[in-house]
Amino acid sequence: MKDLSIFENNHFYKGYSFSIFYFHELETFPLHWHHYVEVIYTMQNGVIFEVNGQKVHMKKGDVLFIWPGELHSIVYQPRPNNTLMLQFDAQLLTDRLDFQKMAYLFYKTRILRGASGGELVILIQNTLLKILDTSLNEENFPEMKACVLIYELMISLGQEFLSEGNRRGKKVITHKAQVEQQMLHVCNYIAAHCTEKITLEQAAFVAGFSKFHFSKLFKEYTGHSFPEFQAKERLRIAETLLMDPSVSVTEASLESGFESISTFNRVFKQFKKVSPTQFRTMYMLSDSEDH
Fold first, then answer.
1. Largest CA distance in the chain
2. 45/116 Cα distance (integer angstroms)
3. In which band, very low, low, confident or very high, does the pLDDT at 131 lie, cut at 50, 70 and 90?
4. Quick one: average pLDDT of 22-37?
5. Pick from 267, 270, 245: which is nearest to 256 by CA?
6. Strands 111-112 and 47-51, how do they pair?
7. What is the pTM for the complete model shown?
8. Mean pLDDT of all residues in 269-281
9. What are the phi and psi torsion angles at 179 (to 5°)?
């Protein structure tokens, strides 16, 4: 179970908003979690990660994404290993309004296989190597240039997710593709209006289905029930508010759409495994240590 004792505060290189490095000797790393994004690219077979209790066996050319707050560890890496890891401040994404509206696209994404990922995986691999080269060799504005590359990487990833339902050709739109388009539409709607009182019936109406059919399709498409998805969107906003010391926990609760502080505390701990106050304390500790 996630707890404060395995929360990891990272100090990025030179105070930058990212770090990128090779695991030349590291064979294992214990269970931990943090509030930054990790992107792992391996150039060999046999690497094993564990994410949220599930083992991920990686092969040469695979790319693994680990999102903030996820429990993970390195179970095994062959030595000497050749694994490249990018870590970057999640606020690079969460501070962007256009990303906030599309954050749900990344909830169920975990690993991209090099053997079948096509052009997207090659693009990600090349971008990671460019970020590494920039951090090591660029004299002028290395952090800004690396952040541009990070944004380009995430934009490409998001655009790929958006277009997944339309790759069967323009002439024939299958029933599955149509359902995916409707689910995408309602996810956009929920993300934009999550602080409001959206009912299951309203969401089903926006999607164009009965509420019973909608519930089943929505769970299949997003991996979450409607209440879970709505809660995660509200928590995304709440996390940003809690990072501002001038906003009280009660204000963060109400502004992110929760009807009461008790509900906010319960849901926050259910999904984040820490209370809102503990979350704020960890963030402030991390921020003060970095300065």
1. 58
2. 15
3. very high
4. 77
5. 267
6. unpaired
7. 0.66
8. 84
9. -60, -40
Which amino acid, 82? N
| Backbone phi, psi, residue 73, to 5° | -150, 160
Contacts of 140 (CB under 8 A, 6+ apart): none
CA angle 67, 71, 76 (to 5 degrees): 100
Residue 222 identity: T
Q: Which two tokens stand for residue 52?
A: 């949220």
How far is the C-alpha of 259 from the C-alpha of 277, rounded, in Å? Answer: 18
202-249: pLDDT as tens digits: 999 988 889 889 998 888 888 789 999 999 889 888 888 888 889 999
DSSP the chain: ---GGGB-----GGG-SEEEEE-SS---EEEEB-SEEEEEEESSS-EEEEETTEEEEE-TT-EEEE-TT--EEEEE--SS--EEEEEEETHHHHT-HHHHHHGGGGTT--EE-TTT-HHHHHHHHHHHHHHHHHHHH--SSHHHHHHHHHHHHHHHHHHHHHHGGGTT-SS---HHHHHHHHHHHHHHHHHHHTTS---HHHHHHHHTS-HHHHHHHHHHHHSS-HHHHHHHHHHHHHHHHHTSTTS-HHHHHHHTT-S-HHHHHHHHHHHHSS-HHHHHHHHHHHHHHH-
Find tokens 């503990």 and name the residue. 278
Q: How far is CA 54 from CA 49, 50, 75, 81, 217, in A?
A: 8, 5, 11, 22, 24
Note whether 7 and 279 are within 8 A (CB): no
Cβ–Cβ < 8 Å for 134, 142: yes
What distance in Å separates the CA atoms of residue 100 and residue 228, rounded to the nearest whole number? 17
